[in-house]
Automatic annotation (TrEMBL), chain A:
Organism this protein belongs to: Pleomassaria siparia CBS 279.74
Presence of the UniProt keyword Plastid in the record: no
Stated name of the protein: Ubiquitin-activating enzyme E1-like
A GO cellular component entry from the record: cytoplasm
Primary localization: nucleus
Keywords: ATP-binding, Metal-binding, Nucleotide-binding, Nucleus, Transferase, Ubl conjugation pathway, Zinc
TrEMBL record, chain B:
Gene Ontology cellular-component annotations: cytoplasm
UniProt xrefs under InterPro entries: APP-BP1, ThiF/MoeB/HesA, ThiF_NAD_FAD-bd, Ubiquitin-activating_enz
Similarity annotation: Belongs to the ubiquitin-activating E1 family. ULA1 subfamily.
This protein's name: NEDD8-activating enzyme E1 regulatory subunit
């Protein structure tokens, strides 16, 4: 009776395959796991105890206290250390036979190129952000490696097998993902009506103007939209300028009063004076610094700790003044340290940074007072400002196990039995599944033809590519364009690059170029070439296509889509990012949903572990497993 | 301002650690978790029990105790993540307990290595625990003892099998297990009461729609859709003897009326607020009637006969029942859906709903106080509990917990009122009921087989002799099936009968082939499901699985049945 008894008895021949694969040169059980967070920890444990021989882990993230309620490979003493490295160390202890490689790196780094992806038998995505998910999806398609994609939100989880060849499936990008939400600048700056408007104001305007890069540089605010009134926009711009000037007095004793009077009094009075605006709205009421200072004298010094309570105006005032002072001090210190060079001293909002959160929560609530909007607890504001997704151990355990079960199907090449699996809160059917879908024929990622080009980059010119390879060998006509990751290299109107070499154009190993055919008839699907550098014999062509390339034609344009985004699949789980339908929260998070109506301030860019707020997504009833 | 005392920076490290889960079950749920003490009676390869515990230690369950007299063997290392080579020969309870404790310093862990037979017979051995998790195999007389204890003390008891690619769990909850905070799907929580408006709401609608024909385009496009709906309802009633649209045809007509009232002479060619009104029209014509399961709750004996000892749930439910009898509706929950509207109007509308909700809460509270006085209740029910109940009134749930089967050697299994429905479902091609029967047969085999006379450890089928055990267990499973069909007073025709037996035979064969062994991945998944249900039972939030769940790891498929 050895360690393997259980696995041998139940897995049967698959177990032998997993074991034998360890000895094969490029074996199918060499596993890549991208992400060592909630799902990653569980997945690593399951892979180790299922007998996989070699596991590579890539994660750029470091361990945070709020990870410890579920990421069981990490302890208090690991906080701030690399997730990938600690996971390797913790899991390796439990099975000395397994080989684990850890990389504390970004999966988008060039070292992780297509050739590297192709050395794995299977890839698991245990990620928390859209961008990295899309990248791995693309790489796996290019390398033709099966991908098991997964994600969780609260009690909901989802597992999806993505495979380019053999039982060709839908890829991660076949379904359009919702873009981040945003609000028009006027709603935020002049006419807020919901707590979220005030929170966005506190975070993206006030905090950014005082401590960060100015609003003008922030990607979240869209100034072009909904400009009811160009004059008003100009006024708002002047307000920002005035606030910037106040910023210069940071550190002075008077600073809190100056800021307060500017944003909670003068700006409000100016707004109020525009009587036209308040004919049908309740006019805002400015706050008084002196009066609130008096009221705040009775406020307990533990107030900022009471994050579940909804604070009074005086309590918000106390937290505002205090957090402003804490942040100013930090700013001063930062400035003192950045003594040389041009790097400006700035602070950035971080929901886990108590000083910044206190400031945004108190500012948002004071603004809500002014506009007669309901105020919120710091706890709620943290969720709304930080785009926090609830996460628990149980869901991760289930989701990771389901990933491994799907991986078994992949390894047995039973793609017809592989499923899209969902965890739901439904008590009728804890787990549901549906068959994998066929690819979306217009998917910008997987409907393309992918291939590698061997290029002698010092010698090959764009002309070689256009005339020799594309026109002569592959039969392109006159109407097509060539795009690199940075922009257009060639189209019928843009031909000045033709004599430049690949090197001169910055097209090095592992970069991608996309050929888009614009012919009216039998239009070719887009072709993505990944470039492999190779010194080719002087007498031969400097660009070489390894193997035959068959390029399909695009389907004829279909009837217009009903809902604009062509997303007919409504995936019930958000996969950690918004995807498909979003449901309205209960009363308490009316505005968590942000605004579907007119808005344009994007939610903050996805940060590790905490993406886009979705309240308890859904119980989505899904097609029952009819396997 | 310099003299203002600096606020201490919160939240605490603990709140930070649990932040992501507090957003699901809140501070009250977390408190319940921290006050709990779970007993794990571990057995067999013992992986599923430990994986379940892992998911409870991480979120901060207050206390756990592992009872397990097994010794760590080499085979344990291949499947149990919480054991290491150096522990071979030591007590499994001790080492798994220690490694689990490392996961979370806030959690107290204990272990008991005394054999279950003698430990369980000690008086009060089960007293400290607020929840019990028993892992198969376990002797039937011991499981029966746990079941009796759960019945007497109203603590939840979970029973889990995890064998090869398959698993099962059943939960025995108290016979009256009510839940206020069911966390309903947010789409079902909007209740705007278009058919039961109150004066302030009507007044609001009137204000917002007066001279709507002459309004500026921008104003017209910002009338809240609730006001639009109410306005058209009032108009409709004028032409229909004061009645709202009744038939489907009338309702459709009503909807068309609204959609025609939208202005289209603007660049958008329509109005978003009118689109919202049209979308909500049909739904808003449904009487705000509570679901039958909620109405049922008002009629059960616990609700009708409130006494001084009644749990607060029943006192509040009784008071809300009175409210419902009086008004024909539940208290207004108070939430307003998002809509196209001017900020000020929207805030005003929110206040109209909030004040009404508040008023309803006060009326229910008054009844609660009256009941407290008349029954001589000693503890006062908190106002916030009444408020919370009123907000969730349409979504409260009563689960009638019941014991699961304890298979005794030689005794026929009783299915009672469930016999008919289960026998019927047995023939469905995809059902996992045959797997449940296979697990029952597995238990009967365990009941009659010992590993060795001395320790009395039960033996699982397939541990030593595959073929004879398969035959034995198959025979038991077929008998259980026939007894079930007989008790149901029904008959399964051919070829269905043969098909059912074939499926049962296949599951039995798979279970015996595993020889009682666990696969880590299946144990981990099952541990995830079970721990989630344990969290529901402890926090008394969310709707629990009632009462049995089966998992087929070959097909990644679950089925929930009530037995
Ligand atoms: Zn695709």
């Amino acid at each position: 009776m050895g360690r393997d008894k259980s696995a041998r008895q139940s897995l049967g021949s698959l177990h032998m395959r997993i074991k034998q694969a360890r000895r094969a040169p490029i074996h199918e059980a060499r596993v890549l796991m991208v992400g060592a967070g909630g799902i990653g920890c569980e997945l690593l444990k399951n892979l180790v105890l299922t007998g996989f021989g070699e596991i590579h882990i890539v994660d750029l993230d470091t361990i945070d206290l709020s990870n410890l309620n579920r990421q069981f490979l990490f302890r208090n003493e690991h906080i701030k250390k690399s997730k990938a490295l600690v996971a390797k160390e913790s899991a390796g202890k439990f099975n000395p036979n397994v080989k684990i490689e850890a990389y504390h790196d970004n999966i988008k780094d060039p070292q992780f190129n297509v050739a590297w992806f192709a050395t794995f038998g299977i890839v698991f995505n245990a990620l928390d952000n859209l961008d990295a998910r899309r990248h791995v999806n693309k790489m796996c398609l290019a390398a033709n490696v099966p991908l098991v994609e997964s994600g969780t939100t609260g009690f909901n989880g989802q597992v999806q097998v993505i495979r380019k060849t053999q039982g060709k499936t839908e890829c991660y990008d076949c379904v359009t993902k919702d873009p981040p939400k945003s609000f028009p600048v006027c709603t935020i700056r002049s006419t807020p009506s919901q707590p979220i408007h005030c929170i966005v104001w506190g975070k993206s305007y006030l905090f950014a103007e005082i401590f960060g890069t100015s609003e003008d540089d922030a990607p979240e605010l869209n100034h072009n939209e909904d400009s009811e009134n160009a004059q008003e926009i100009e006024k708002l711009h002047q307000e920002s300028q005035a606030l910037k000037r106040i910023r210069d007095s940071m550190g002075s004793k008077d600073f809190p009063r100056l800021v307060f009077n500017k944003v909670f009094k003068e700006d409000i009075e100016r707004l109020r004076s525009m009587e036209d605006m308040w004919k049908t709205r309740r006019p805002p009421q400015a706050l008084d610094f002196e009066q609130l200072s008096k009221e705040a004298l009775g406020v307990a010094d533990t107030i900022a700790q009471k994050d579940q309570n909804v604070w009074t105006a005086a309590e918000n005032f106390a937290v505002f003044v205090d957090s402003l002072r804490r942040l100013s001090n930090r700013m001063e210190e930062t400035r003192a340290n950045v003594d040389t060079g041009n790097a400006p001293a700035i602070l950035t909002f971080d929901k886990d940074d108590a000083d910044t959160l206190d400031f945004v929560a108190a500012s948002a609530n004071l603004r809500s007072h002014i506009f007669g909007i309901e105020t919120r607890s710091k706890f709620d504001i943290k969720q709304m400002a930080g785009n926090i997704i609830p996460a628990i151990a149980t869901t991760n355990a289930m989701t990771a196990s389901l990933c491994v079960l799907q991986a078994f199907k992949v390894m047995r090449e039973e793609f017809d039995k592989a499923k899209m699996v969902f965890l739901t809160r439904s008590t009728e059917r804890v787990i549901s599944s549906e068959p994998l879908r066929v690819p979306n024929p217009t998917c910008p990622v997987c409907s393309v033809t992918q291939s590698t080009l061997l290029v002698d980059t010092s010698r090959a010119t764009l002309k070689d590519l256009v005339d020799d390879l594309l026109r002569l060998q592959l039969g392109y006509g006159d109407e097509f364009s060539i795009n690199s990751e940075t922009g257009i290299l060639f189209d019928p109107e843009e031909d000045q690059n033709l004599d430049k070499t690949f090197n001169e154009l910055g097209l090095k190993a592992d970069s991608f170029i996309t050929i888009i055919d614009d012919a009216d008839e039998d239009t070719k699907v887009n072709v993505v070439f990944s470039i492999a550098e190779k010194t080719l014999d002087k007498d031969t062509r400097p660009i070489h296509l390894p193997g035959k390339l068959k390029i399909g034609t695009k389907p004829k344009a279909s009837a217009p889509e009903v809902n604009g985004n062509g997303n007919e699949h409504n995936h019930p789980v958000t996969n950690g990012v918004t995807n498909g339908k979003r449901k309205r929260g209960a009363e308490d998070n009316l505005e968590d949903d942000l605004v579907k109506k007119r808005g344009k301030v994007a939610a903050a860019p996805a940060v590790a572990d905490d993406i886009i707020l979705v309240d308890d997504a859904t119980d989505g009833a899904i097609v029952i497993d009819d396997d | 301002m310099a003299d203002l005392p600096p606020p201490v920076q919160g939240p605490t490290a603990k709140e930070k650690k649990y932040d992501r889960q507090l957003r699901l079950w809140g501070a009250t749920g977390q408190m319940a978790l921290e006050d709990s003490h779970m007993l794990l009676i571990n057995s067999g390869p013992g992986v599923v029990g430990i994986e379940t515990l892992k998911n409870l230690v991480l979120p901060g369950m207050g206390n756990f105790t592992i009872q397990d007299s097994a010794i760590v063997s080499e085979a344990d290392l291949g499947v149990n993540f919480f054991l290491e080579e150096e522990y071979i020969g030591g007590f499994r309870a001790e080492h798994t307990c220690n490694l689990l404790k490392e996961l979370n310093p806030d959690v107290q862990g204990n272990f008991i290595t005394e054999p279950i037979d003698s430990w369980l017979t000690q008086p009060d051995s089960l007293k400290p625990f607020t929840l019990i998790l028993a892992i198969a195999p376990i002797r039937p007389e011991l499981l029966a003892r746990l079941s009796a204890h759960a019945n007497a003390t109203l603590i939840p008891l979970f029973y889990v099998h995890c064998v090869g690619f398959y698993s099962h769990f059943s939960v025995h909850l108290p016979s009256a297990y009510p839940i206020v905070d069911t966390h309903p799907d947010s789409e079902t929580t909007a209740d705007i009461r278009m058919l039961k408006p109150w004066p302030e709401l009507l007044q609001f609608a009137k204000e917002k729609t007066s001279n709507m024909d002459t309004m500026e385009a921008d104003d017209h496009g910002h009338i809240p859709y609730i006001a639009i709906l109410l306005h058209h309802l009032e108009e409709w009633k004028k032409g229909h003897d004061g009645k709202v649209p009744q038939t489907y045809q009338e309702k459709t007509e009503f909807k068309t009326t609204i959609s025609k009232a939208a202005r289209t002479n603007n660049p958008e060619g329509g109005e978003e607020n009118y689109d919202e009104a049209v979308a909500a029209a049909l739904k808003s014509l449904k009487e705000p009637e509570p679901s039958s399961s909620v109405k049922e709750i008002f009629k059960v004996p616990e609700c009708v006969l409130v006494n001084k000892e009644s749990p607060s749930f029943w006192v509040i439910a009784h008071a809300i029942g009175l409210f419902y009898t009086k008004y024909g509706v539940l208290p207004v929950p108070g939430a307003v859906p998002d809509m196209k509207a001017r900020s000020a109007d929207y805030i005003q509308l929110q206040n109209v709903y909030k004040s009404k909700a508040r008023k309803d809460v006060m009326e229910v509270l008054e009844s609660v106080r009256f009941l407290e006085r008349t029954t001589g209740r000693e503890t006062v029910i908190e106002e916030k509990d009444v408020e919370q109940f009123c907000k969730n009134a349409a979504h409260i749930k009563l689960v009638r917990g019941r014991p699961f089967h304890v298979v005794q050697a030689g005794e026929t299994i009783k299915w009672g009122e469930r016999a008919k429905s289960i026998a019927q479902n047995l023939t469905f091609p995809d059902t996992l009921i045959p797997l449940y029967i296979a697990f029952l047969a597995f238990d009967e085999f365990v009941a009659t087989h010992d590993k060795d006379r001395l320790s009395g450890a039960p033996k699982m089928p397939g541990e030593t002799r595959q073929e004879t055990d398969t035959e034995k267990v198959t025979g038991i499973a077929f008998k259980i099936t026939d007894d079930l069909i007989k008790e149901a007073g029904t008959f399964i025709e051919e070829p269905d009968y043969t098909a059912v037996k074939e499926r049962i035979g296949e599951f039995v064969q798979e279970l015996v082939r595993a020889g009682g062994a666990e696969l880590h991945n299946i144990a981990s998944l099952t541990g995830g499901i079970v721990s989630q249900e344990i969290i529901k039972a402890i926090t008394e939030q969310y709707i629990p699985v009632d009462n049995t769940c089966l998992f087929d790891g070959v097909k990644s498929k679950t089925e929930v049945i009530r037995i």
